């Protein structure tokens, strides 16, 4: 039990720190694309510490407070189910549907908290977020079906181990199609352009985030950092072979090497999303829904059909 608790603590601390570094990388890369210098990579950590140190005397009731804790808790639980190289707490029980569900439901907690504030901008943002969440379900479902059909299992860990023998998922055409569709879905899960309709900074004043400040916003920053880590980790595991390394005689060296391999893959996934966000303008909500129900759905459905043959 002590070993398991220490592993869980390590995963939580590592995911939070790396997630904050990912937030810093996004800001720096976006700034360079826009020909700006950008803040230091550790700026999100400083921002979060400042927010958590502030006193807050304003609350909008139980749901407003509980929704944030619900989002943070669900995101932490998702990380525990995703294989992290040779480190894992609940990886044996982490199937595709469960992890996908846990990565999506934090948005519901944030939406409930935002709507309980009574702010009209928060309500509009929450409606847009729920519509976006609905729009991504179809291509996301087909992508998961394609993986399950091809490997004959829903277990994320078994899919990772199968890739050590059969090669990365993206090396197989049906799963390459599923990966493309999932990556497009990932853009909305990140809340990045062109699918950042729910926050739309210049339009609805950050939408659901408009009423959050102080410790509430600090906790949301932590949740976002862990979510970035979890979503890139999940994609790296199911499509890019995970982080299994057996080249060294020492298990410690294999573990460290596995984390480095995973980190490189996660950064690659993150940079693709960052480049897309910096280049493409924001969609309207109807454009986003039509887009997801068209091209990603067609691509993922074709991948699922080919994977079942």
UniProtKB/TrEMBL annotation:
- In terms of superkingdom, the source organism counts as Archaea
**This protein's UniProt keywords:** Membrane, Oxidoreductase, Transmembrane, Transmembrane helix
| EC category name | oxidoreductase
Q: How does it sit in the membrane?
A: Multi-pass membrane protein
State if Protein transport is listed as a keyword: no
Record GO cellular component, one term: plasma membrane
Regions crossing the membrane: 6-26, 62-84, 96-117, 129-151, 171-190, 225-250, 256-279, 291-308
Q: Which GO terms describe its molecular function?
A: oxidoreductase activity
What InterPro entries does the record tag this protein with? ComplexI_Subunit1 (IPR052561), NADH_UbQ_OxRdtase_su1/FPO (IPR001694)
Which Enzyme Commission number(s) are listed?
A: 1.-.-.-
**Localisation:** Membrane
The protein's name in its UniProt record: Respiratory chain complex I subunit 1 family protein
Provide the organism lineage as a comma list.
Archaea, Methanobacteriati, Methanobacteriota, Thermococci, Thermococcales
């Amino acid at each position: 039990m002590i070993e398991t608790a220490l592993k869980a603590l390590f995963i939580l601390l590592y995911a939070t720190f790396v997630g904050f570094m990912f937030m810093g990388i996004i800001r720096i890369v976006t700034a360079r694309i826009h020909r700006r210098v950008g803040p230091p990579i550790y700026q999100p950590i400083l921002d979060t510490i400042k927010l958590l140190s502030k006193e807050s005397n304003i609350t909008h009731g139980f749901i407003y407070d509980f929704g944030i804790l619900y989002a943070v808790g669900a995101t932490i639980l998702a990380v525990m189910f995703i294989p992290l190289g040779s480190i894992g707490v609940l990886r044996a029980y982490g199937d595709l549907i469960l992890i996908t569900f846990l990565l999506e439901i934090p948005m519901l907690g944030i939406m409930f908290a935002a709507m309980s504030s009574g702010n009209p901008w928060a309500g509009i943002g929450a409606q847009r977020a729920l519509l976006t969440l609905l729009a991504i379900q179809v291509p996301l479902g087909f992508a998961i079906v394609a993986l399950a059909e091809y490997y004959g299992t829903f277990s994320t860990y078994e899919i990772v181990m199968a890739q050590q023998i059969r090669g990365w998922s993206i090396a197989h055409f049906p799963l390459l199609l599923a990966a493309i569709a999932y990556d497009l879905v990932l853009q909305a899960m990140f809340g990045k352009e062109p699918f950042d309709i729910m926050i739309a900074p210049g339009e609805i004043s950050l939408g659901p985030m408009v009423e959050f400040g102080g410790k509430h916003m600090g906790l949301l920053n932590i949740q976002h950092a862990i979510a970035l880590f979890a979503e890139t980790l999940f994609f790296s595991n199911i499509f890019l072979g995970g982080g299994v390394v057996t080249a060294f005689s020492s298990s410690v060296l294999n573990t460290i090497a596995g984390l480095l391999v995973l980190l490189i893959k996660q950064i690659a996934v993150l940079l693709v999303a960052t480049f897309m966000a910096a280049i493409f303008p924001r969609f309207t909500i109807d454009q986003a829904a039509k887009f997801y129900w068209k091209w990603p759905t067609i691509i993922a459905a074709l991948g699922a059909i080919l994977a079942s043959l």
